[in-house]
Amino acid sequence: MKILVVGGGGREHAVIKALKKNKNVEKIYATPGNGGISADAECVAIGAKDIPQIVEFALQNKIDYAVVTPDDPLVLGAVDALTEKGIPCFGPSKAAAIIEGSKAFSKQLMKKYGIPTATYEIFDSQQKAIEYLKTQNFPIVIKADGLALGKGVIIATTYDEAVEAVKSMMSDKVFGASGDSVVIEEFLTGPEVSVLAFTDGKTVVPMVSSMDHKRAKDGDQGLNTGGMGTVAPNPYYTESVASVCMEKIFLPTVNAMKAEGRTFKGCLYFGLMITPNGPKVIEYNCRFGDPETQVVLPLLESDLLTVMQAVTNEKLAEVEVKFSKKSACCVIMASDGYPSAYGKGYEIDIPSGILPSVFIAGATKKDGKLVTSGGRVLGVTAIEDDLSSAIASAYEKVEKISFANAFYRKDIGKRALDALKESK
Ligand code: AMP
Ligand code: GLY
Questions:
Q1: What ligand is nearest to the CA atom of residue 287?
Q2: Centroid of ligand 2 to alpha carbon of 368 (angstroms)
Q3: Per the CATH hierarchy, to which homologous superfamily does domain 125-180 belong?
Q4: Cβ atoms of 380 and 358 closer than 8 Å
Q5: CATH class of 192-318
Q6: pLDDT digits 0-9 by tens, 232-259
Q7: CATH number, span 327-423
Q8: What pTM did the predictor assign?
Q9: Residue 290 CA: which ligand 2 atom is closest?
């Protein structure tokens, strides 16, 4: 089989490595992939958002199956465009991807179907938003409606901060058109859990839970990033929490999307907060998380391609989706400065022995050498019998990788380990 993976980050590298385990896979192409992914797939210089060119490439190269993972092409309708031309695909349609593409949509969906989430109001007028803030308690959460690379959320601790956040989104347009309307919502507290789930629109199969580390610096300080590291499973996601989530969140969400005529097929990402009043949805993503995928897929014991095809064919209930009982830790090595300005073009040295557990995100080939080209450069994953060994092993590997200006958090997994100790 010939497979096309649309995207070019660490998440796509993890997807490609997992797909390659299937003996029927002869060839994988990535559009655009990256310099590190080129060791595992043929990278083709077509941008992930360039849907007409992706479709043309897929037709010309007789692609048997396509996997679309980034939010932008999904929200723009890449899966619809490929499916229309007869290429079976993994990923939600444009109509379903709106669950991530518009926070206003997802909040209204949750309200309509009684799915637990923070209470909220939506505004498309700055003046009305500010009037509303005068009546509220703080902290409060301000979110740009559309996609903002995970950065469109501001937690305002005072009225003045909240007004400034609204103005930056609605007048200064720091997130572009994504800030044409804003969601203002209740500030929730509690540990966060990421759950990625396979769904074919009828059946929902949660994958092993994970914990992201969104802030740039140790101790959860610094700016919000796309994610600086992950561990799986997440100790806060106990069996009882999992069963509440299935009954009150996962199934109701999949059924709600179907009832709205927006059947969701693909990987649905539930960003959850375990509040004193039970689990609540912080956000939905219409795709695999990054870097959650880099800990979740290495723990998948079943064949990824088989599961993905079952999703496409609406036969998910018929396949086994089995995860290892081990623990995984992924540490992201970034270029210092990320998520603000950072340098590029530094040569990366990775000993060949650890290459299989390295997922490359922001790197390119220059004169045959791998050099940095992005903020998040790579992720290093280790799998061990328990979390503490997985963390130690991931950092051992990180120590062996070098590039100028490298930066990584030293405390990935610490919160999870503390939680495990507390629960004993
Ligand atoms: P999001 O992009 O919606 O996942 O938000 C980014 C981060 O902001 C989340 O991972 C939370 O840490 C935080 N956050 C978002 N919404 C809330 C909320 N209602 N209460 C508290 N924290 C929140
Ligand atoms: N790591 C968070 C995300 O993928 O949105």
A1: 2
A2: 31
A3: ATP-grasp fold, A domain (3.30.1490.20)
A4: yes
A5: alpha beta
A6: 999 999 999 999 999 999 999 999 999 9
A7: 3.90.600.10
A8: 0.95
A9: 4
